[in-house]
Amino acid sequence: MKTIVAKQLRGNERAWYVVDANGMNLGRLATQIARILSGRNRVDFTPHLDNGAYIVILNAGKVSVTGTKEAVKMYRSHSQYMGGLKETTLAKMREKNPVHILKHAISGMLPKNRLHDGMLDRLKLELGDTHPYAAQKPETLSL
Predict the structure, then answer these.
(1) Kind of pairing, strands 54-58 and 74-78?
(2) Sign of the Cα pseudo-torsion (120, 121, 124, 125, in order)
(3) What residues are paired with 21 via a beta bridge?
């Protein structure tokens, strides 16, 4: 039996999917999206190749969280200067930059290597119900 070695997909060979995130749980949605972006759902998955799909997420700011995460979950950034730690709660981040919530969750679930940025570039987040990617004929994905 021969071992099949997968080849790197080109841009026009990748699949396009559309997901409506309205009311979906943040963590559960992020794990499934990260799996598709990294290509782990494919039969010919190879860890050193980036063979994932493009994903367009509609209503990205309307994801839900359980429990008291709206007030307790913190997003932290540091300026690398003394006392430069900035903390923002999930509720404030939802007002300020609602797309960042889902992008941050998905980014944390992707591999931390050279392929990370390319995978994240294929993630398209939209705040509304429409998207400008109709020419790519994306399939609707129900998660």
Answers:
(1) unpaired
(2) positive
(3) none
Helix (H) or strand (E) holding 35: helix 26-38
How far is residue 101's CA from residue 97's CA, in Å, rounded to a whole number?
8
Does pTM surpass 0.90? Answer: yes
Which residue's structure tokens are 């987040």?
125
Q: Tokens 């931390």 belong to which residue?
A: 112
How many other β-carbons are positioned within 10 Å of the β-carbon of residue 139? 9
Instruction: Give the bridge partners for 76, in sequence order.
Output: 87
**pLDDT tens-digit series, residues 84-143:** 999 999 999 999 999 999 999 999 999 999 999 999 999 999 999 999 999 999 999 998
Yes or no: is domain 11-140 CATH 3.90.1180.10? yes
